[in-house]
Amino acid sequence: MFVSTALVFVTDLAARLLGNRLFRQHFHLLLSAAVLFGPALSLWVSPHSVFARKSHFLYRLFLRSGWGWTCIFVGSFIFLFSFSIRRSLSVSVRHLSRLAVAGGLWIGFCKLLDLLENATGSCYETLNAGPEVSNGQPLLVLREGESRSECLRAGMSWRGYEVSEDVFLLCLCCLLLAEETAVFGPYLSLGGVSDAPLRILFLFCVLLLGLWIFLLLCLLAYFPQFPTQLLGGALGCLSWRALYQGWYRLEPNWFCPGRPGQGLLNSKTSTSQEEDLLNHNHHN
């Protein structure tokens, strides 16, 4: 009984926060400010912290599979939320297609960024036994004619024009999580039925959002890389704006999945009221 009451209290509180108009209007600005000023945290963090090692289990377990974790929890929440309301597999698949579009966009950008790094980079060999420059770093000798894959296989380093894919992914996942879970608050305010499995999935999504924000701050504080991280954050925010503030605002049809919650809340209210709620929670 206590666990059930605590679950309802915590999820109601989180749903009100994520569905709050001020939060929805300013979350992307807060995330942008974190990416812009986050590297300044490196002045206060300890280089001997456990989070200063990229071998930390949080980086290995979650960061390297960030999109997979996001798809598992957000996809489960979207499916259960939409199917429990409409009992329609086609409606659930339509809402799930937003994840497929975002995933395709992320993979496409990663491929383009990889091509950019290959086209603009060069291979360098480290002279470990040679003389050192004044700042204590070993000399690097340019190796011409080496491809990126050959260079890395030979144990050498590749230097090219980079955009932080980790920051790009974390920013995109944070904004996606905030968008997809924001509809739960209006649904509860309309008296929607929410069983324990749906609330647990929602809570997992909220915890995942908190974890992504924490890992983003860790990357910015312990591994600052300017301007690659700034470019990655900008690319993530632009991707979110193009999808959730652009394409998904069109009427749902065969080429547009629509906004989160569109076609679901009208089971509790009229279509015009549903539009008001969606506009209220997706307003910039």
From TrEMBL:
<dbReference type="InterPro" id="IPR046402">
    <property type="entry name" value="FIT1"/>
</dbReference>
<dbReference type="GO" id="GO:0008654">
    <property type="term" value="P:phospholipid biosynthetic process"/>
</dbReference>
<comment type="function">
    <text>May play a role in the formation of lipid droplets (LDs), which are storage organelles at the center of lipid and energy homeostasis. May directly bind to diacylglycerol (DAGs) and triacylglycerol.</text>
</comment>
<feature type="transmembrane region" description="Helical">
    <location>
        <begin position="200"/>
        <end position="223"/>
    </location>
</feature>
<dbReference type="Pfam" id="PF10261">
    <property type="entry name" value="FIT"/>
</dbReference>
<feature type="transmembrane region" description="Helical">
    <location>
        <begin position="167"/>
        <end position="188"/>
    </location>
</feature>
<comment type="similarity">
    <text>Belongs to the FIT family. FIT1 subfamily.</text>
</comment>
<feature type="transmembrane region" description="Helical">
    <location>
        <begin position="66"/>
        <end position="85"/>
    </location>
</feature>
<dbReference type="InterPro" id="IPR019388">
    <property type="entry name" value="FIT"/>
</dbReference>
<keyword id="KW-0812">Transmembrane</keyword>
<dbReference type="GO" id="GO:0010945">
    <property type="term" value="F:coenzyme A diphosphatase activity"/>
</dbReference>
<feature type="transmembrane region" description="Helical">
    <location>
        <begin position="27"/>
        <end position="46"/>
    </location>
</feature>
<protein>
    <recommendedName>
        <fullName>Fat storage-inducing transmembrane protein 1 homolog</fullName>
    </recommendedName>
</protein>
<keyword id="KW-1133">Transmembrane helix</keyword>
<keyword id="KW-0472">Membrane</keyword>
<keyword id="KW-0256">Endoplasmic reticulum</keyword>
<dbReference type="GO" id="GO:0140042">
    <property type="term" value="P:lipid droplet formation"/>
</dbReference>
<dbReference type="GO" id="GO:0005789">
    <property type="term" value="C:endoplasmic reticulum membrane"/>
</dbReference>
<dbReference type="InterPro" id="IPR046401">
    <property type="entry name" value="FITM1/2"/>
</dbReference>
